[in-house]
Structures are given as C-alpha cells and as structure tokens.
Design a protein that fits this description.
Elements: H1 4-10, E1 28-31, E2 34-40, E3 43-44, E4 47-48, H2 60-82, E5 88-99, H3 107-122, E6 129-135, E7 144-152
Parallel strand pairs: 5-6
Antiparallel strand pairs: 1-2, 2-7, 3-4, 5-7
Helix pairs in contact: 2-3
Length: about 160
C-alpha cells in the first residue's frame, strides 16, 4: 500500500509551512483519535493569496485554485500536529465555505477541487462526508474557508 507521504513525493507536491493562527486560537485540537482543525484559508503565511467572490470577481473555475491552496494548508497543519500524514486514517467531515455574490448555484464545483486534492494525496479510502456553503463574504475578502475533522490512527 502506498502511504500518504509517498503520494506527496511521487506527485511532486510540496506542502507549504503550516499556517499560524490569525488570532487567539490554535490551528488544531486533538481529542482521542479525532483531530479538529480551525478554519483554513487559502493563504501563503499570513498573506491572502486569493481575494474576491465567486460570481463577481471570480468565476467557478477561478474559485477552484483557492480550494486547492486551502487543501494544502489543511494538510500542512495536520502534518505538523501529527508528525506525519500517514497517521491520518480518514477525513471525517469537510465543510467548504465559499464567498459568493449570492447568485451562484455551482459552488459544489469549487468544493470539488478541495475534495479532488485530498483524494489525490490521501487516497479514496480516506475521503469524507462534505458540506458546501455559499456565504456573502469573509473578513479581508478571502474567497474560501474550510472546516474539517480528521480521524487519527489509534496508537499512531
């Protein structure tokens, strides 16, 4: 079986440094075998990489790139907290919040980009249930935020 860290190497995907909080909270909390991650934005460090709303400044296809970036940030925080992505046994739930002008109906296509990235890196057997929300906006006009829960392998 190919492990997650090997998938990253073979796909030539380099995770960014784990993002640090923008306020008085922690990026990850573990209780038992569950790892809860704070909302993850498509940033590089503390700099917004994608700004705007789907349906106004960006179309659906342009909204997919921030979803990919946020997915990599999620994995970077999980790796930092767990020591290795091989310790992730499953993504339990993925919530994708997409900033929208309010008229978009295809926001699932933006979220699909995040799910596809996780599938490519973690594998089909670790895929999650998913929720997709369109919201009118975020602080600092960021396009996308995530909410997710991961399950850690017992005794890993």
């Amino acid at each position: 079986m190919v492990n997650t860290e090997d998938r990253l190497t073979k796909a030539a995907i380099e995770l960014p440094p784990a993002v640090t909080p923008f306020g008085p909270y922690v990026p990850a909390v573990q209780t038992g075998n569950l790892l809860f991650l704070s909302g993850m934005l498509p940033t590089v460090g503390h700099e917004p990489k994608f700004l705007g709303r789907v349906g106004k400044e960006l179309n659906i296809e342009q909204g997919r790139n921030p979803a990919h970036a946020a997915a990599l940030n999620v994995l970077a925080v999980a790796r930092q907290h767990l020591g290795s992505l091989d310790k992730v046994s499953r993504v339990v739930r993925l919530g994708v919040y997409v900033a929208t002008a309010g008229e978009q109906v295809d926001l699932v296509k933006v979220a699909d980009a995040a799910s596809e990235r996780l599938h490519d890196i973690l594998g089909k057997d670790k895929m999650s249930a998913r929720l997709v929300f369109g919201v009118r906006g975020f602080l600092s006009a960021r396009l996308l935020s995530w909410k997710r829960s991961l399950k850690r392998r017992p005794n890993a």
